[in-house]
Specification:
single chain; 487 residues; alpha/beta; Aldehyde Dehydrogenase, Chain A, domain 1; 21% strand
Length: 487
């Protein structure tokens, strides 16, 4: 049964959901299995992946040669054309994805709408060319690039696309589009395992490719399928070196640990696992009230964008306000400004949470009775909250903060903040800029993977490193041709 979206008002009608397998230009719609979505959302039906393993995997790697008959410019043109067709009000497949995500995703309707609006720009020729030039170098994708070594030997290097499977996250729909962009632009054979909280965005892109050119080499190199993680019968047959060469997995400890049991020589695992992010605000924020309000507005964006569902969102902010009584007063003033900025973010950027965690709400309410150690702004319903520690320690449930809830922690010395980071810290937003320059090296040594100006944490790009690795380069096979002159 088809889902329906009113093109004039973007209102939705709830109907049943069917998730086909998209296998190399073919839509497989033999719906024999039913699965439940996350967040207590609608169930969906999908074909049994075990029955179609021979269509999912690329049994003959030589078939990838068709991708090498395309220049990078031709690939960029195809992807740009795809992006131009990803206009929500004009693309029925995206409308289906949006409708289902309004139920299955942790994001609210207006925030989801904003993310789908970004798809054409994400797949624009300019964006993708920048991604390839910055992270790989197009010359390595197009040709064998020679280098003369000190011993006179000539080494020619080229980046070849691998046979890849992507176990993607569904917290933000842009992950699906970015995965397809990265994989197709590097001429990889692309198999995407759909997440249960976004089982239709990648499907929508692949079906749009089929409508464009069903026999195009890029269309024929893409597979989109859902199977339940832990389906041993399917995964044992699937995760083999003769089928795939690289696994790019987004996931938590349990899911990554599960995938590792299938690793063996010939299969490379690239992990993009969940992280926690934070902010550091220096003493300069308190120079004037105008500056303090501006800092609060910038911090609110880092907290509230994507409704705090993404790894980049700040959850704890260390503030160099001082820990004496005057410093705590300054911090509480920032807390009030921050709460106001947070709840007044534009609805396409952030909204009150769709669901507010019951345990978190209980913890917040408990802190209200302890005003000697904490002050809480908001959090009475699902609008979000600012928890202001009255001492230099975060709340003991800081790793559970979600739904636009942040904890401000007073410090005297930024070293306190630096010593709080570890290998699980992804993004740190910092104000002012000169403080960022001073402490960035030490933050990196302690485990931080990305440093940004305060207020710009959500402004990520697929043209940059991610989680302190170069996923685009690692998706490729870097091979060489050695030419030696006999003595």
């Amino acid at each position: 049964m088809q889902t329906v979206m009113n093109k004039e008002t973007t209102t939705i009608e709830l109907v049943d959901y069917e998730i086909p397998i998209i296998a190399r230009g073919q839509v497989i719609d033999n719906y024999s299995l039913t699965f439940g979505g996350r967040h207590g959302s609608a169930t969906f039906k999908t074909p049994d992946a075990k029955r179609y393993l021979n269509k999912i995997v690329l049994k003959n790697p030589s078939q990838q040669k068709a991708l090498y008959n395309l220049s990078i410019e031709e690939i960029l043109n195809f992807m740009d054309d795809l992006g131009q067709r990803l206009v929500l009000k004009e693309n029925e497949y995206l409308q289906d994805a949006f409708t289902l995500n309004c139920e299955a995703s942790g994001l609210t309707k207006t925030v989801l709408y904003g993310t789908y609006q970004a798809l054409p720009m994400l797949l624009s020729k300019e964006s993708l060319r920048e991604m390839l030039n910055q992270r790989i170098g197009i010359k390595y994708l197009e040709n064998w690039v020679p280098t003369t070594m000190s011993n006179g030997q000539t080494i020619s290097v080229r980046a070849f696309g691998a046979r890849t499977v992507h176990v993607i996250a569904g917290n933000v729909p842009l992950v699906a589009a970015g995965t397809i962009a990265r994989s197709c632009c590097t001429r990889c054979d692309t198999i995407i395992k759909l997440p249960s909280n976004d089982p239709l965005t990648a499907t929508a892109l692949a079906r749009t490719m089929i409508d464009m050119e069903p026999n195009h080499p890029i269309t024929k190199s893409v597979v989109i399928a859902y199977w339940k993680g832990g389906d041993t019968e399917f995964e044992t047959a699937f995760y083999k070196p003769e089928n795939i060469e690289k696994i790019i997995a987004w996931g938590g400890y349990a899911s990554i640990k599960h995938i590792t049991k299938y690793l063996q020589p010939g299969i490379d695992l690239i992990t993009l696992d969940p992280k926690l992010s934070m902010s550091i605000i220096g003493a300069d924020a308190f120079q004037t009230e105008e500056i303090l309000r501006t800092v609060a507005q910038r911090a609110a964006i880092d907290i509230g964008a994507f409704n705090q569902e993404a790894c980049v969102n700040s959850r704890v902010i260390y503030v160099q306000s001082g820990t004496d009584s005057a410093g705590i007063d300054r911090l509480n003033e920032l807390g009030a400004y921050l709460y106001y900025s947070l709840v007044n973010l534009p609805s396409h950027v952030s909204t009150p949470a769709k669901e507010f965690d019951v345990d978190l709400k209980s913890n917040i309410d408990g802190l209200r009775m302890d005003d000697m150690f904490y002050r809480v702004f908001g959090g009475h319903e699902n609008e979000g909250a600012v928890i202001v520690s009255q001492m230099d320690e975060p709340v003991d449930f800081s790793d559970q903060l979600c739904g636009r809830v942040v904890n401000l922690v007073p410090i005297d010395d930024v070293q306190t903040a630096i010593q709080s980071v570890n290998a699980y810290t992804q993004t740190v937003g910092i104000y002012p800029e000169q403080l960022k320059q001073q402490i960035r090296d030490e933050l990196i040594l302690n485990g931080v993977q990305r440093i940004v100006s305060l207020g710009f944490a959500p402004n990520g790009s697929f043209a940059t490193p991610q989680d302190a690795i170069e996923p685009l380069r690692r998706m490729c096979k870097w091979v060489m041709d050695e030419q030696s002159v006999p003595c």
